[in-house]
Amino acid sequence: MTADPAISGPARQPGGVRGLWLVAWLAVLGVLCALSVAIGTRAVGLEDIAAALRGQVDSIGQAAVAARIPRTVLAALAGAALGVAGTVMQGVTRNPLADPGILGVNLGASLAVAVGVAWFGIASAQAYIWVAVLGAGATAVFVYAIGSLGRGGPTPLKLALAGMATSVAFVSLVTAVMLSRGDIAGGLHAWQIGGVGGATFARMAHVLPFLTAGFALCLISARKLNLLALGDDLAAGLGERVAVARGLASLGAILLCGATTAVCGPIAFVGLMVPHLGRLLVGVDHRWLLPFSALGGACLLIVSDIAGRLIARPSELDVGIVTAFVGAPFFIWIVRRARVRDL
Questions:
Q1: 74-342, what's its fold?
Q2: Which residue windows are transmembrane per the record (predicted)?
């Protein structure tokens, strides 16, 4: 990789070191996937796992493994999408508090789906995804507009406050929608928590085109995000079209958030925690940070899913609850660690 003018000084790390970190996290992801398939409310042996991988479901253990495989794949895809989306949002807004959950983007997608189901009777998987993506995009624009009002423009703290206020309002609106439709309230409430249970490869097939497009747009925007980190004036001076760069990267993040929310429900804090860990390990160059965020997000969501199965045995906790339990203290730590005037 050639040197990027946006990455200089101690923030740059040797490519070999960063490569080793990515390889290490790829190995961790492989181990976690194996554990996710093996661990659950029912203990299974290696014979059941091997048989299920061959497509056999002759026993309860094999059926349990067969159900855990798509669940693990969905957790990895959703975690990777949320991790990358959070990194892009932090880069676009230059906001260390940015996260699809904190900025209200996931809940905007959730509200759009709830309204679509309750009032317009949407039922197809494709309709769910399109409505969720549109809701996520509209919310992102709304929060950015609100956070830009007043002196100083869209500061990180104002964006975070606008996003949290929007999230609270949207939670109330989703509740109101569910109360008006008791016949669908149970399904919407379970989905609103955020989880990967009941995953199937058929459900994932519908979101793969949206996730692929989102990942592609975000990765293409890696160098643009490096330039945006220098400030709009300097980025423009280096030949970057700032508005186009922001729009392209934001579109990628919105596609990832909307598609993930459509299939899993709103899951918060993954996009907040993973980018901060990535910067500690591989630096601030988005060409390295985005792949690390994908791996880190996948690992985090799989760990959360495994923890949810173990904590509440013989029942389960959805991953949305586990990530909120871990992410809320992390959010408070980030705010306390940074001086308020610097936010």
A1: ABC transporter involved in vitamin B12 uptake, BtuC (1.10.3470)
A2: 20-39, 69-89, 101-122, 128-147, 159-180, 200-222, 243-268, 288-307, 319-336
